Amino acid sequence: MSGFQVSSGLIRREPVGNTGGKVRLDYRRFGVVGGKHVTALPEYNMASRTVKSLHDVLMAGTDSLLKDGTVTMTGWKIDSPYRAEAELDQIIQVAAELRSKIDDFISIGIGGSFLGNKATIEAILGSLELFNLLGPEQRGGIPRIFFLGNHMDPGYTARVLEIIAGRRVGVNVISKSGGTVEPAIAFAILKECMENGFTDHASRIVAVTDKAKGALKKLSDEIGYAAFEVPDNVGGRYSVTSPVGLFGLAVAGIDIKRFIAGARFAEEETRKRPIVSNIAMLRAVMRYVAYTKMGIKIEVAATGTYDLKGVAAWMQQLGPESEGKDDKGIWISPEFYTQDAHANSQMIQMGERNIMETFLMLEESGTDVVIPGRGTPVEYLDGRTLSFANRAFVEGLRDAHYAGGVPTMSYILPALNAFTLGQLYQYEMNAIALSALLLEQNPFIQPGVQQYKRVADAKSGKPGTESYALELGRDEQKLNPNLIA
Ligand code: PA5
């Protein structure tokens, strides 16, 4: 016998809830230094009264802090969880048609038009770096899935193009504005390759963009791509439950009706629960008190589950882009344990006490690997499983950090499926919107992001930016040339 052998019984797979389960929040360890729980602080009581009325403000949708221009940006709360079945059926049908004729699916988008999509697909199908290595049968009819347009790295882009060359490809291009440069460049490249490769290229490309305006909408109408609409009242980072997220999930074979049912369930819970059991409000209030009274400036979004790294990355966008205005806001830093414990845990444990930590804890993954420890340095773990060891270490990090003065809380996911993911997003979008409102910030605008785009446009020669480009050149001349070592 030659070749690597996986001993029988080494890998264990057990069916776990594929469709249900409720997400919970464990906030027992959200303590202040000295061991007092946050709920014992007078500031907590005050903020929990305020958060209720801010939720009423969110529901009413009239306050200027909810608007981008004239549009109230609460479609993710008011409309998305109540999306009509017929609309979902249409997305499922177009996705199934595309899936039936492709081997590889390329999703193009950036920011909110990328992160939720990738996070959900990886949480449910498993990390794509491994999923894409599986054969067609192991993938169960799901195409390999790649993301482009979320950066402009030529090496990565060239490699993806070479990997998919000669194969049956489908493309989903997502941009609410229709003009964001990174996805526009990626789409220009893919469009040319699709037109060279397929006579039916138009039917292999699906656009998700504004219903009426923007360059992508114009192009899509001209060429005749199928198109789904990003609602006016849904901003990028709140769009995972809109067609922005839904089309890609449907191509990946994920049950988008259960996903929306999960979002709806969490939305109803947020609307009706008292604060003591209201996940979104609790999180908003605890973050606010941590920021204003406990010196917290950074929230680590930590997980020991590889397939949840993308959700932590989605949280990294949602919080800071929603709150980071007027010199305020909590920075969110995703951490994957135990890998990152060997890099950052020292700082979290003993550095400046300005960090809180939110864990994404998975109860059942359904897959386990037995540790054959006999005769090795981990003999004491012989016959135990990886999930046993992983849990011990991730809980160990949580408890040690808490003992070291880090307020921690945990989202508990009973299983990874469309229903639990839909809940998690809806809770977190509510929590962050309320958290930003507590800081008197509009969660739905991102004026700071426009600033770097203005500079980048001028540097990359966008028409209309000529005089600003000259100004930037003059500023560069003023820099001291002796300050390059
Ligand atoms: O949250 C946001 O609004 C942003 O991250 C956007 O999603 C991102 O800039 C992409 O924008 P667009 O979909 O218009 O290309």
Automatic annotation (TrEMBL):
Entries under SUPFAM superfamilies matching the protein: SIS domain
One of the protein's GO biological processes: glucose 6-phosphate metabolic process
GO cellular component, one term: cytosol
Gene Ontology MF annotations: carbohydrate derivative binding; glucose-6-phosphate isomerase activity; monosaccharide binding
EC number per UniProt: 5.3.1.9
Pathway: Carbohydrate degradation; glycolysis; D-glyceraldehyde 3-phosphate and glycerone phosphate from D-glucose: step 2/4
Keyword Isomerase among UniProt keywords: yes
Keyword Acyltransferase: no
Catalyzed reaction equations: alpha-D-glucose 6-phosphate = beta-D-fructose 6-phosphate
InterPro entries assigned to the protein according to its UniProt record, in alphabetical order: G6P_Isomerase, Phosphoglucose_isomerase_CS, SIS_dom_sf, SIS_PGI_1, SIS_PGI_2
Pfam families: PGI
Keyword line: Cytoplasm, Gluconeogenesis, Glycolysis, Isomerase
Record-linked PANTHER family: GLUCOSE-6-PHOSPHATE ISOMERASE
Family from the record: Belongs to the GPI family.
Protein name as annotated: Glucose-6-phosphate isomerase
Organism ancestry: Bacteria, Bacillati, Saganbacteria
